[in-house]
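Please decode residue identities from the backbone states below.
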């Protein structure tokens, strides 16, 4: 199953082995290439980065104790890399994708007060489209550029009444 280009497996897909094992991940020219996982029929698995059909770098699952909290999730050597959650000692929590210790891609940031940012991140900053859920029950959605709201945001109070708010470089202009 997956992407084919002129009878060649390319992109993301699944390969089923005759012995019952299964590979899910990326292919290039019919071989495992990039991030992928082999699930063995005995319930064990190997996750990592593949090159020319062979595992190059294995990800492990673990816990890192850090000065301001701890991380649980996938590790590449001693780096936070893959899916994981960082629990800060001040009550914040970042869960989602990590690349070489940076929180990047789709994820969720929960603040100590219960405010949730669910969207896209770059180097730990809200960066791209994000839904924000406030403890009061209100919500807002829009584009952030490096933690600053920018452009049109749709806001709903806890009773579902909506309005549009406009931001420029983090400052509300309406």
């Amino acid at each position: 199953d997956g992407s084919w280009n002129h009878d060649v497996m390319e992109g993301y897909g699944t390969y089923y082995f005759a012995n019952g094992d299964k590979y899910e991940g990326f292919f290039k020219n019919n071989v495992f290439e990039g991030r992928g996982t082999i699930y063995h029929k005995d319930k064990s698995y190997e996750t990592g980065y593949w090159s020319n059909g062979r595992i190059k770098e294995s990800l492990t699952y673990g816990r890192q104790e850090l000065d301001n909290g701890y991380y649980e999730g996938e590790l590449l050597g001693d780096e936070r890399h893959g899916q994981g959650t960082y629990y800060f000692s001040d009550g914040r929590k970042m869960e989602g994708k990590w690349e070489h210790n940076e929180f990047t891609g789709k994820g969720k940031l929960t603040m100590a007060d219960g405010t949730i940012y669910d969207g896209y991140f770059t180097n730990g900053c809200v960066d791209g489209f994000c839904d924000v859920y406030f403890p009061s029950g209100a919500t807002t959605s829009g584009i952030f550029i490096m933690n600053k709201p920018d452009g049109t945001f749709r806001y709903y109070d806890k009773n579902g009444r909506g309005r549009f708010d406009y931001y420029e470089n983090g400052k509300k202009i309406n």
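Observation: The mean pLDDT is 92.
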